[in-house]
Amino acid sequence: MPGKRRVLSGEVVGTKMAKTVVVSVESTSQHRLYNKVVRRRTKYLAHDADEACRDGDLVRIEESRPLSRRKRWKVIEIVRRASS
Question: In which region does residue 21 sit, left (phi positive, over 0), alpha (psi from -120 to 50) or beta (all else)?
Fold first, then answer.
């Protein structure tokens, strides 16, 4: 199915750009040797056309065509609002 796009969820950590938010996505994996659970965070730039996201919001982002040099994701929904 070639039209399948990746969907990730993460927390908005930056809203200082116009129509762009920085989303921090946390992933966990197990260390091969020590079997300890390792947490990794990756920051993605995501398109927010309505500028509805605020810092601390939990959002779902979807992979899209390149929108700028670093922006390849767009916000599809706000799962949970940040406690003001």
Answer: beta
